[in-house]
Amino acid sequence: MCEGVLVDTINKWIRTKTFSNGVSVTFTMRQSIVSSDYSFKLNPTNSSKNFKYFKNILNGKIFGNSYKRYGKELKMLVVLENSVNNRLHYHTIIEKPDRLNVSQFDNLIRECWNKTLFGYSYIDIQHPSSISEEEGWVNYIMKRKTKEDFSTSIDLENSSCLYLC
User: Fold this and answer.
1) 3 state DSSP class of 162
2) 14 touches 6 (CB < 8 A)
3) What does the longest C-alpha to C-alpha distance in the chain come to?
4) Residue 71 has what DSSP assignment?
5) pLDDT number for residue 165
6) Could you read off the pLDDT tens digit of each residue along the chain, which spans 165 residues?
7) In this predicted structure, what is the pLDDT of residue 7?
8) Can you give the pLDDT at residue 10?
9) Would residue 72 be called left, alpha or beta, if left means φ above 0 and alpha means ψ between -120 and 50 degrees?
10) Dist. CA 27–CA 119, nearest whole Å
11) What's the first-to-final CA gap in the chain, in angstroms?
12) Alpha carbon 50 to chain centroid, angstroms
């Protein structure tokens, strides 16, 4: 009962957050990294660190020094999910800057993601063309089914929309 109330409350609150030019992105990740020097298995903690690195690169490329100096950054909602075959991945909404066209922004996302340690080359980027598509994506990423613990599935450290909206 208590978990259901928490889920409903979080879902209602997330729906109050708005994005202009929100882009729906699914990021896949390598589930482990093995080299002669180290070996890492992907988990929620290093997933979040990996995404933070991506976010820093992306915001740095878009805002330059203003990102670090003045805290300018893109609005993002970042949700970690575990697929049915136990592969961690992120579903996100990322604000597209007006000064970039769709192709430029998509290429920048791919370029920045490929610079991360766990970044995997398959990225699905969708540009919703209607309110119903935007709402459908929010409903999809906020589903409980593929989340080990719904209360920790929203990556609060990387979800800048939670305080920018």
Assistant:
1) helix
2) no
3) 49
4) -
5) 45
6) 455 665 666 666 666 666 778 999 999 999 998 888 888 899 999 999 999 999 999 999 999 988 888 889 999 999 999 887 889 999 999 999 999 999 999 999 999 999 999 998 899 999 999 888 988 888 888 887 766 676 678 888 888 875 544
7) 62
8) 67
9) beta
10) 8
11) 30
12) 11
What tokens appear for 137 in the block? 């994506």
> From the DSSP assignment, how many helices (H) and strands (E) are in the chain?
7, 6
Which residue, among 105, 42, 87, 77, has the nearest Cα to 161 in the 3D structure? Answer: 77
Question: Are the C-beta atoms of 77 and 163 separated by less than 8 Å?
Answer: no
CA dihedral 71, 76, 80, 83 (to 10 degrees): -150
List, edge to edge, every strand of the sheet that includes 76-82.
76-82, 88-95, 22-29, 119-126
- Token reading at 36: 């002669």
Task: State the residue for tokens 């922004």.
Answer: 105
Cα angle vertex 36, ends 34, 41, to 5°? 20
What does pTM read for this prediction?
Answer: 0.86
Sign of torsion over alpha carbons 32, 36, 38, 39: positive
Q: Give me the phi and psi of 113, to 5 degrees please.
A: -65, -40
